[in-house]
Amino acid sequence: DVPAWLKSLRLHKYAALFSQMTYEEMMALTECQLEAQNVTKGARHKIVISIQKLKERQNLLKSLEGDILEGGNLRVPLQELHQMILTPIKAYSSQSSSPEEPGRDGDSQHPASLLGSDSQGSGCKDAAAAGMQQHHLPGCEGESGGAPLPEGDLPGQFTRVMGK
């Protein structure tokens, strides 16, 4: 939900700018591209920093999982997970790396826009839920092991941490 994420950053006036971008385009934004779109200097900096934090979520989840397994306080990991669930998360598709379909990103059935009507958004949520469901049992035994999740499987990693 990009508009809600932007609102939480107090940058909701830039929602229209993001409406025509794919997730990958948003994640690759630079200050120069934002400047070309007449985004103010402070907002440009805040957007770039916020996108960098989005890129670091996988490592943060791995760290949170370790903290939980070590028996640490659950308050901080739960707060981090709460904040993370409010950020844009792309549904993971294992088909994106299949050799018979190179270049497929798994979202071809969805519009390219990051913003859409509620019906389109619920379809993405359903896809994200399906991606999370497939990892629900294997990664949630409460053991330190478990099968390693592929890089980019943020929903699976999130679900694994919740299971711990």
Automatic annotation (TrEMBL):
- Domain SAM: start-end pairs: 1-57
Compartments it resides in = Cell projection, Dendrite; Cytoplasm; Synapse, Synaptosome
Keywords attached to this Swiss-Prot or TrEMBL record, sorted alphabetically, are: Cell projection, Cytoplasm, Repressor, Synapse, Synaptosome, Translation regulation
Entry GO terms, CC: dendrite; P-body; synapse
Q: CDD domains in the record, alphabetically?
A: SAM_Smaug
Could you state a single Gene Ontology molecular function term?
mRNA binding
Where does it mainly reside? other
Q: Which family does it belong to?
A: Belongs to the SMAUG family.
| Protein name in UniProt | Protein Smaug homolog 1
Q: Which organism is it from?
A: Tychaedon coryphoeus
